Backbone:
């Protein structure tokens, strides 16, 4: 009952500031925008044409090159539905026959060679495997490629089992088709997931989180102001409980907003697209998790400083540090930074280990949730976020950090004079 | 068992750069059930600090404090304690009624009982018509009444009031005195801090005079003023003549403007002084015993 009273008080406080009203209006606007989204499935011929066009665009960063001479220039010469004359296995019935031409065989061979385990000139079969692999990664279920060596062409028999998962299978637009959205190389499912990722990671996870940090930062200092503290802290409630109730109240504030925003946009997108991606709802937990990290610092600094500005600065400082460390860690992993002195690397690893993983939680775990029931590796490659995720480390170090900071805040709070 | 039992309580604050101030220096006191106990002292004497230590808002540097026979820091004790702070800040996002309901819930009251107590408290302090008004919309006096309502809404057995009449108009002060009288009749113990000595004199059973963190005098109002044995006489005509008539016959005699201050050994000396003046044909316009304020000023002056 006491907890509910504090929770209601916190909600009343935010309502009084009109913050909640503004956030609800903004969330409603986003839900409304999602409700105007249109997902138009495209004809197979159009999709195959665009897929082949996209084959020039490497999926992995390491193979990307700016040099036009490296461009293998694969072109779709012709496309038709498979016929009984093709004498294909029954699994390919209902598929398509594609004729692809190679514009630059040297560049194509170099591209294939880069994918081989040992360095040798690729055989025709390896070239066919390369084409098949690229098509599979774009959602084509059963591609069979045959070389027509004399004409530098490939005959490809392809079939798609799930058109929702094939690259460029959908045209996305907003405001009932008035504002088209260009999503190259993206399947129907990935288009929705990309929109959901934008909503959850940027609008809710960054902008919304920023607002939440600022709005909640003043809550504890306000409670601890002389005169306010006198009225609240002379009640039959221990200081530790009071502070923890405030903390949970802050988390519930974010939980309610996140549920409204994510739940609303989820329902709107699902209604318009017909795909009810349950993983998107997992982003609510991620948002609350990230806020739990940030708010613990805000609360602790608020207890010490008794002012609203230091908690905001400290929280944003921690958030920025987490992001920088995550990027630094990624650059080290991918070798983009080159060799660093052992001391610096060891120091970075230690700091990364000790600090919470607000960025990893907010992005990697969010993508993991978004790819619920689908191949998260392909999705993360699509979003260019394909890096290893150590879930136990992310949750363990973040949880330990939050517990430590809260314990410290409670210890200071229970010993201070007011 | 005393309701409030303070033993050698000391509190020092660090002012930074190694400087410390001793706010309380070994204070001991006891307040019994149903008493209205007044704490007097100049600004900075340590009155509020003592109350804050009793309410665990401050941690004592040394000494012990017990409420209802238990260590004062126990949170569950505060279910029986009400507190009206001097510089209170009633949450401005609440209306008078919703704010009181919030404090009622924090004090362990629930449901219909909490709502009934809120209505009763508002009525008791004359704020029923303002129940829906936001705290920030209330005048200083009305906010003071509201803060008093939050202190009494859970019917505490022990009530700490820090400058309770601050900002109240005479009618408000009268209402406050009436409520305090009713609380005393119900057995509530009241611990009162006030600068308004007349208020304390009218309300309190016992007082403690604090000065620079030390207890100077403690006793009942009657005891302290009787102990002084000093009377102020206002005479008709020339006070110099009255001085001549009374001169050398009493323990002490002094003059301040039209008033003559008479220090006596007993009540019979007062009768004798009146008889002497009447026999000399000098009219007496007023005769009053020394007030608590004069006792207080004398105590503070003596300590200084």
Residues:
């Amino acid at each position: 009952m006491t907890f509910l009273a504090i929770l209601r008080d916190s909600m009343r406080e935010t309502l009084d500031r009109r913050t909640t009203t503004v956030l609800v209006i903004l969330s409603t606007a986003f839900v409304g925008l999602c409700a105007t989204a249109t997902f138009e499935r495209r004809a197979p011929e159009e999709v195959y044409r665009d897929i082949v066009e996209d084959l020039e665009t490497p999926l992995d960063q390491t193979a990307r090159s700016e040099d036009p001479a490296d461009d293998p220039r694969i072109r779709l010469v012709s496309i038709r539905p498979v016929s009984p004359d093709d004498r294909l296995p029954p699994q390919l019935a209902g598929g398509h026959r594609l004729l692809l031409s190679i514009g630059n065989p040297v560049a194509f061979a170099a591209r294939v060679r880069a994918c081989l385990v040992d360095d040798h000139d690729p055989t025709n079969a390896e070239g066919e495997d390369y084409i098949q692999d690229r098509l599979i990664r774009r959602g084509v279920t059963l591609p069979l490629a045959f070389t027509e060596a004399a004409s530098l062409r490939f005959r490809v028999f392809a079939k798609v089992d799930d058109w929702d998962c094939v690259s460029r299978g959908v045209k996305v637009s907003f405001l009932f088709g008035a504002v088209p959205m260009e999503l190259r190389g993206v399947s129907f499912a990935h288009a929705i997931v990309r929109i959901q990722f934008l909503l959850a990671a940027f609008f809710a996870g960054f902008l919304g989180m920023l607002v939440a940090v600022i709005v909640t930062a003043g809550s504890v200092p306000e409670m601890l102001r002389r005169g306010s503290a006198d009225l609240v802290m002379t009640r039959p409630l221990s200081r530790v409980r009071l502070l923890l109730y405030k903390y949970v109240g802050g988390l519930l504030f974010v939980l309610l907003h996140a549920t409204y925003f994510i739940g609303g946009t989820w329902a709107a997108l699902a209604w318009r697209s017909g795909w009810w991606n349950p993983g998107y709802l997992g982003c609510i937990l991620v948002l609350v998790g990230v806020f739990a990290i940030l708010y613990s610092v805000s609360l602790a600094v608020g207890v010490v400083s008794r002012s609203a500005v230091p908690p905001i600065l400290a929280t944003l400082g921690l958030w920025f540090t987490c992001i920088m460390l995550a990027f630094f860690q990624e650059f080290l992993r991918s070798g983009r930074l080159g060799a660093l002195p052992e001391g610096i690397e060891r120091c970075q690893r230690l700091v990364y280990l000790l600090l919470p993983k607000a960025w990893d939680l907010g992005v990697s775990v969010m993508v993991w949730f978004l790819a619920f029931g689908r191949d998260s590796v392909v999705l993360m490659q699509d979003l260019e976020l394909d890096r290893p995720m150590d879930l136990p480390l992310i949750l363990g170090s973040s949880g330990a950090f939050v517990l430590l900071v809260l314990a410290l805040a409670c210890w200071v709070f229970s010993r201070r004079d007011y | 068992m005393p309701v409030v039992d303070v033993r050698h309580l000391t509190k020092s604050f660090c002012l930074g750069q190694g400087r410390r101030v001793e706010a309380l220096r070994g204070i001991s006191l006891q307040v019994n059930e149903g008493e209205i106990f007044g704490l007097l002292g100049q600004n900075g004497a340590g009155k509020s600090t003592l109350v804050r230590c009793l309410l665990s808002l401050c941690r004592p540097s040394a000494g012990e404090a017990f409420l209802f026979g238990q260590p004062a820091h126990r949170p569950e004790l505060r279910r029986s304690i009400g507190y009206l702070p001097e510089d209170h800040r009633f949450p401005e996002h609440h209306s008078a009624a919703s704010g009181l309901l919030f404090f009622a819930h924090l004090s362990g009251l629930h449901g219909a009982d909490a709502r009934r107590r809120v209505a009763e408290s508002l009525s008791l302090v004359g704020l029923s018509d303002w129940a829906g008004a936001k705290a920030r919309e209330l005048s200083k006096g009305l906010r003071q009444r509201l803060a008093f309502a939050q202190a009494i809404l859970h019917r505490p057995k022990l009530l700490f009031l820090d400058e309770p009449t601050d900002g109240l108009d005479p009618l408000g002060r009268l209402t406050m005195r009436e409520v305090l009288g009713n609380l005393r009749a119900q057995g509530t113990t009241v611990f009162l801090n006030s600068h308004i000595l007349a208020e304390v004199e009218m309300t309190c059973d016992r007082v403690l005079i604090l000065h620079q963190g030390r207890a100077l005098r403690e006793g009942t109002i009657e005891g302290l003023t009787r102990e002084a044995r000093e009377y102020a006489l206002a005479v008709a005509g020339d006070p110099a003549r009255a001085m001549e008539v009374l001169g050398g016959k009493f323990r002490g005699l002094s003059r301040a403007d039209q008033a003559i201050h008479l220090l006596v050994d007993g009540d019979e000396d007062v009768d004798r002084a009146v008889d002497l003046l009447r026999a000399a044909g000098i009219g007496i316009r007023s005769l009053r015993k020394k007030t608590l304020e004069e006792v207080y000023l004398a105590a503070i002056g003596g300590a200084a």
Remarks:
- The radius of gyration of chain A is 27 Å.
- Chain A has two domains: 2-39+170-415, 43-158.
- Strands of chain A lie at 38-41, 74-81, 96-102, 144-148, 153-158, 170-174, 179-181.
- Residues 58-64 of chain A have pLDDT under 50 and may be disordered.
